[in-house]
């Protein structure tokens, strides 16, 4: 999911220009031969991803934040994905294999891996090796991203070092990539576990067929209120396809339309009463913040188009038939007026096969989510718990929650605390508890700064309490 802007204190930002230029130069000689894969035909079958033909990564400057404590390596794999590796000088022997969020649309760029390492430099500062892929392509394709992530693990093992433990870390949309990857890749060629455990942070964890329902709701409610996406003078199209293939629109174009109707670029006090009424209707009915409306509308436009045009054969897996909206000044009128769409059964099945987790993960899984996450609702974690239980992995899941209201990054001491608890679970069989993790976090504040905010007693409500249910194929 697209990152929501957070304060400078919440996310470390380091200029990328110097590192990116050096990284691009270093990639000039990287190989790009094709890698054959085969789709898994059962939930536990392992697709073939081989790093046998991959060239070794080359040295590249590290981001400024870790330049003094680590060395960095970069490359482009045979499928076309760029990657970046950080090896701390004081390596603790463990690897964090990172799957990034978003997803970004368009061709992959090396800068993306640099930005991810900058954001997640806490892992290198805590002594972990870190490796992250840009993925071979942009757009919403979970299994392909999981394959690229596994390929990077093999490159690390073959050309860099053999870690004692490998933790598969997925952030935001990347959490679905990590969950799916842990299901897809359960044994290496020599019978070992490729991943010893999984860390899912701020995850989009209800699968593609449920996680995005509210964005379909946003599209139809926004159109009812604003009637400018599309305008009456433009060709009509089903809103659940996002945008027709041949329509040229940029995020700036969409933002201009949204501000024309909702004035999100102005403080609430400077909006007209009509503009504020419309904003408040969206906030009250969908239970999203006004500051997140634009980013969710972007996703429901451009990413929906990517899904429909490139992933589900031109048909939409998104629908709102049977959804009953509430919270507006006149719910009867709202429900009668909004456009209704039925999700295409074949598209739903195809999208589910790629994006929906099954819960069949054979290793420990630890999650964390800010209870006021504006992008990946905390109720998604309740659904994921049910998925893990239905898949027979409920005993291998521990969920934690924090007081944070951010999505892209919580705090520096949060993540080393989770990593320590996860490794203790793997190494000693000591399954962590939310209470124990909350108690252990303050010890990391002395080294990494303030930021512990665990809520050990918190239990999220069901997803249906946040996003209205609907008819499904």
Could you outline the blueprint of secondary structure elements for this entry?
Layout: H1 17-26, E1 58-60, E2 70-76, E3 82-88, E4 94-99, H2 110-119, H3 121-125, E5 129-133, H4 142-159, E6 165-171, H5 173-184, E7 197-201, H6 208-211, H7 213-226, H8 251-262, H9 273-286, H10 293-311, H11 331-337, H12 345-355, E8 365-370, H13 379-390, E9 397-402, H14 414-428, H15 434-440, H16 442-448
Can you tell me about this structure?
This protein is of the alpha/beta class. The chain has helices spanning 17-26, 110-119, 121-125, 142-159, 173-184, 208-211, 213-226, 251-262, 273-286, 293-311, 331-337, 345-355, 379-390, 414-428, 434-440, 442-448, and strands at 58-60, 70-76, 82-88, 94-99, 129-133, 165-171, 197-201, 365-370, 397-402. The chain has two domains: 17-207 and 359-464, Rossmann fold, CATH 3.40.50.1820; 211-352, no CATH class. The protein is 37% helix and 11% strand. Strand 6 (165-171), helix 5 and strand 7 (197-201) form a beta-alpha-beta unit. Mean pLDDT is 91; it is low at 1-45.
